[in-house]
Write a structure and sequence with these properties.
By secondary structure, the protein is of the alpha+beta class. It is built from 5 helices and 24 strands. The strands form 9 sheets. It has a 4-stranded antiparallel beta sheet, covered by helices on one side. Strands 18, 19, 21 and 22 form a 4-stranded antiparallel beta sheet that branches. The chain has a 3-stranded antiparallel beta sheet with strand order 10-9-13, with no helix packed on it.
Length: 366
């Protein structure tokens, strides 16, 4: 008689063979997991150096370490432009100057990394000759400290990954176009000088790392005035700055030119500074018959024309003068022309000169 096995009894101990099989199964699972981790790690390795450079660059911007940031930009040697860029104000890119700049990018977070190997198709459809990477970044900064989003572009060079020179967060042009004399100082370090009438004065072209910079305008002639607000740099298009002549200077210029015109009219253009062109007064009107010219009205150059290079006056005076018609003023075809009759006519005077302000605040017309 056969007895059925009692299922309530504990099973017999595992055999050596069964224990060996279990160990192999466990080892296979461990290897599979390890192999999966190694595969994921290998795929992520391409992003690691990109993230590291982007992190170091953004951290340097936040702490104001300009030299550290510049050393991570392509084409730079020890923070300077390779070979030395003509017209660049390097003082603006120093640690001391940049650490004092407000609105630097801070609290940056890397959101995404897109690495493209050499030989792949780039965003523009062209084949890449070297590896590139686009790092999506969010940060706070600027004039109002608001949250911003953009990308940091990197390229692979012989020295490893570097921030692309044309990346939005890379150092870029200050881009100030001063339409008038004088200079604008950027963060107390670099001057952008206006060109003169003949274009003979060079204009500095400094670069700046991202931030909000203070601007100060000065005019050695003492004529110009320009109210400036802090600006966010760098800029990809020029910022046009137009100084204006100060109102008190314009008033003095008008008074001086009016006085000059009046003296010339009274002398019949015989004064030492009067124009030699006799067409400065109507040839048919006699204004020198004695006594002062009555009802002389002068309109001189408006303030807008004093903004031109060097604050040079141009076409400053049109004067209406009273007098009498000369005996030979009436030709055969003149109807109603009576010699000796009262007449009011206009005369055009041109004064060219440079306006400056002396130490006593008095306007000088040269």
């Amino acid at each position: 008689m056969t007895t059925a096995p009692d299922s309530s009894r504990p099973s017999s101990p595992s055999t050596p063979a069964s224990r060996s099989r279990a160990r192999w199964v466990l080892l296979a699972v461990v290897l599979a997991v390890a192999g999966g981790w190694w595969l994921v790690s290998f795929l992520a390795d391409a992003e690691r150096p990109v993230r590291a450079v982007a992190h170091d660059y953004l951290a340097a911007l936040e702490t104001g370490e300009a030299m550290t940031a510049l050393a991570l930009v392509e084409g730079r040697v020890d923070g300077e432009a390779d070979g030395g860029a003509a017209g660049t104000c390097t003082a603006l890119l120093s640690d001391e100057a940049y650490s004092a700049v407000a609105g630097r990018p801070s609290g940056a977070r890397i959101d995404a990394v897109d690495v493209r190997a050499a030989g792949e198709e780039g965003p523009d459809g062209a084949t890449l000759v070297r590896a590139t990477a686009s790092v999506g970044v969010t940060w706070t900064g600027g004039a109002d400290g608001a949250a911003q989003a953009g990308s940091l572009e990197l390229v692979e060079s012989d020295d490893g990954w570097r921030v692309a020179a044309d990346s939005p967060l890379a150092p870029g042009p200050v881009g100030l176009d001063l339409q008038g004399p004088g200079s604008v100082s950027v963060a107390g370090e670099c001057d952008v000088v206006a060109r003169g009438p003949g274009g003979g004065v060079s204009t500095a072209e400094p670069e700046a790392l991202p931030g909000v910079y203070a601007l100060v305008y000065t005019d050695p002639a003492g004529v110009g005035a320009l109210e400036l607000e802090d600006v966010e740099l760098p800029v990809r298009g020029p910022i046009t700055l137009r100084p204006e002549a100060r109102a008190e200077v314009v008033a003095q210029v008008e008074a001086r030119v009016t006085e000059w015109i009046g003296a010339c009219v009274q002398s019949g253009l015989e004064g030492p500074t009067c124009p030699t062109n006799r067409n400065g007064l109507p040839t048919h009107t006699d204004v020198t018959g004695g006594g002062e010219v009555e009802d002389m009205r002068v309109a001189v150059v408006p303030a807008t024309d004093l903004q031109r290079w060097g604050y040079t006056t141009a076409r400053p005076g049109v004067v209406e003068v009273s007098g009498t018609l000369k005996p030979d003023a009436c030709g055969p075809q003149s109807i109603g022309c009576v010699p000796g009759a009262p007449n009011v006519d206009a005369a055009l005077f041109r004064y060219s000169g440079t306006v400056t302000v002396g130490e006593d605040g008095d306007v000088v017309l040269d």
